[in-house]
Amino acid sequence: MRRARWALALGLVACGVTERREPLSARGEALARNPNAVRTNRPCFSCMTCHAVRASDAPDRVLPGAPLQGAARRPSFWNGETLHLREAVERCWVTFLLGDAEDLSGPTGEALSAWLESLSPAGSTEGTAPVRLTWPPTVRNLDPEGDPAAGARVWLRACATCHGEVNTGRGRLACGSALPQEIMAAHADDDIPSTFPAGTPQYYRVLAIEKVRHGSFLGYAGRMPPFATELVSDRDLRDLLVYMGLP
Amino acid sequence: MPSGPVAVVSNSLGNSLSLLDLTARTVVGTYAVGIVPLAENGPHHLGLADGAVFTALSFPAPAIAPGPHAAHGSSQVAGVLVRRSMTDFSLQGRATVEPNPGELVLSPDGRRAFVSHYDLLRALSNVGNREAQLSRLVVVDTRTMQVTARVPLCVAAHGMAFAPDGRTLYAACPGDDALAVVDTSRDVVAAADVTLVPLRDRPASGSPTMEPYSVGISPDGATVWVGCINGMSGAPLLAFDAARRQWDSARALRRLGGTPYFPAFSADGTTMVVPLQSRDGVMKVRFGSPPELTPVALPMGACTLPHQAALGPDGRYYLVCEGVHTATRIEPGSVLALNPDTLEMEARYEVGGYPDAIVFLRGGR
User: Fold this and answer.
1) A32 vs chain B: nearest CA distance in angstroms?
2) What is the predicted pLDDT for the residue at B61?
3) pLDDT range class, residue B201, cuts 50, 70, 90
4) β-strands B223-228, B237-241: how paired?
5) CB contact under 8 A, A81 and B65
6) Which of B15, B38, B89 sits opposite A226 (nearest CB)?
7) How far is CA B207 from CA A205, A233, B44, B189, in A?
8) Which domains does chain A possess?
9) Which fold has domain B41-261?
10) Taking the model in full, what pTM does it have?
């Protein structure tokens, strides 16, 4: 049923029901930009926290999500992990926005679908190719050397929107932690695995690497999206860790 | 979708299904079926009904080397039964089952899915408490995708198969050295519907010596063949007399030259084809007194770790080969089409990582 409704939404747009499409599309864009679009008591992200319509729209930022232009006509999403736009959107809607998957079966889903369709007009191939995003499944043993100045630039482009200033968190989103201080404090009482010497920064370094690469997935908590190696290279990550004081 | 016979193969490493055109002898495509981002989703066994394909996702334990079977049986992450359209593989429904789903079978009418759980972690974490060791049989309504029953079955249940009567379900119980016989005739299956028939006088309760793992039923339903993955003199293929509900030790097949996995039968029931691992190959068993056993070697490099044999709609046997899947090396698995008489290889399909099961769409679309 959910699939049918999503398909119906796409169908309405594709059939050229202009008077319906335009308000729907505009509503979809408004939803995509609204962190309160989901019915949760912990609103934080909107779609546009992590996505741009075109990569050129956010030249100063590293966004974890793929550009949305052309997305409705891509053959696959999430680096090929899913073949269906509905499933791709649901992953974000539920995991990062903390929304209810059923919302995507109703007017909200129809509106978002209409907007994404409007960004993928017939005849244009712009943005329709699959986007390669690589999330290594295991932690790399990164060289502890790094350039803190370069790391500061990575922080500003990739981290600051959600986490604010390093250490203080000033200017962060409501759901963004002040890194690395709050994370280190939160985990101070945890049972640190015996493979990490107690009181050393190595554990927090591994935590940071895992969070950057895997976000809230692979058993890690929270609602942070993962950053692929195409967006934050291992070199960038190394510099970032030094900047964060986790060499 | 091809118009002729089609096979669907699960790739348990790589989160996908492969679609094979058995007439053109080509791989039509490989389709993502996972639902959890970044993770090995481990699609294992398969079922087809009502224009949909069902597969149980068996997630490995997180933060370990990737690979569902590297960790098969040791995950704490609940598995998920997913229903996807056979038209475009879009998600039509999901049901949370339990950690480490093992086998999935559909009732012959396609209305219920039965999922066993090869939950070694549960077995090993509860030594001395048999009730807590028992894995559950989860029953799902395939239309609503609602769980209708969670029934204690046995320790670390795995392979299952329905009898031709459509009511009796057999499940191999590696942790108990037993076969579970389940009467599914009631709408809601309950614990009272399960009868455990151990190899000895009592269930091994987590200290097994034979570990029955795979199940195949003769077309007439008279004999349940149970492949073991352990044994003093090599892993045997045991015979279970369905009518008498007891093991028939005289008919057990031993010293097969390898570990037997999921077998297939000729339509007339006179022949059984058994995949063998360790010394990769197949054993052709021609039933008689005594049965005639013919080992068949496969072409070099064509099949690594034969896992399941199945009789295809074209009369050929299809052999699912796991391929190489170690912590440091993964190579694609394969499916071989075997001549029904000689078992010579007639075609080879390269599929994804660690293929685990094959099912057929007879007509295709």
Assistant:
1) 21
2) 61
3) confident
4) antiparallel
5) no
6) B38
7) 42, 48, 26, 28
8) 2-118 (1.10.760), 148-243 (1.10.760)
9) Methylamine Dehydrogenase; Chain H (2.130.10)
10) 0.88
